[in-house]
Design goal:
Blueprint: H1 9-16, E1 19-22, H2 35-47, H3 54-70, E2 77-81, E3 85-88, E4 91-93, E5 97-102, E6 110-120, H4 125-143, E7 149-155, E8 159-166, E9 169-172, E10 177-178, H5 182-205
Parallel strand pairs: 1-9, 6-7
Antiparallel strand pairs: 2-5, 3-4, 5-6, 7-8, 8-9, 8-10
Helix pairs in contact: 1-4, 3-5
Length: 206
């Protein structure tokens, strides 16, 4: 089955024997947003057509936020767009965005471990989380590291929800974020990137 075949979180939880919980695990980590980014985003949202399709949402609202934060972490990670991710016949597909360890062979080599999976869905958050959680399971298994925390984000461009998979426990952050409160949103995304970097450093030091 492809990731998109999963239509509910419950289906994924049952298929892979994962326990579901909700808690506010995110620790907002301040991020300095440039004036240029604020002005550019405001212009795009005011004058552009940003939500007429999934592609428009990704290109105009989701990717720009991820890219802005990624710039501070690019020495360790590559931010991939629509890159194939396959564990087996039940876990395969093309996640919107993946944050992966930067390979010593260069940026063109898709390296594991995979740390961050992002799935953008237009208002279908349960379906979005089903697909995202399946992708998180695939990432976890590709890493062969059950102690590794895999983070996921589901967004419709405006609302951003966060989750993490740790061993066989999936935790969805109770608080969601919105692009209308840009500083809070960036602080949440920055926390995820920071935690990915912490884990990478721990793996490299092991």
């Amino acid at each position: 089955m492809s990731f998109s075949s999963y239509k509910s979180i419950g289906e994924v939880l049952k298929a892979f024997q994962i326990t579901y919980t909700e808690a506010n695990f995110l620790v907002e980590t301040p991020f300095n947003i440039s004036d240029y980014f604020r002005e550019d985003l405001a212009l795009v949202m005011r004058e552009g057509v940003v939500d007429n399709s999934e592609f428009a949402i990704c290109e105009n609202l989701v990717f720009p936020v991820l890219k802005e934060v990624w710039k501070c972490y690019y020495s360790n990670f590559v931010l991939w767009s629509h890159q194939s991710l396959t564990y087996d016949q039940n876990l395969s597909g093309f996640p919107e965005y993946i944050l992966a360890k930067r390979s010593r062979l260069g940026k063109l080599v898709f390296e594991k471990p995979y740390f961050l999976l992002v799935e953008a869905k237009q208002d279908k958050f349960d379906e979005g989380w089903a697909q995202c959680l399946a992708e998180m399971v695939a990432a976890q298994r590709l890493n062969d590291e059950l102690q590794l925390v895999i983070f996921g984000i589901v967004s419709n461009g405006d609302r951003w929800q966060f989750g993490k998979l740790e061993a066989n426990i999936f935790t969805r952050n109770k608080t969601f974020y919105t692009i209308q409160e840009l500083d809070k949103l960036f602080a949440a995304v920055n926390y995820v990137f920071q935690q990915c970097e912490v884990q990478l450093n721990q793996l490299l030091a092991a």
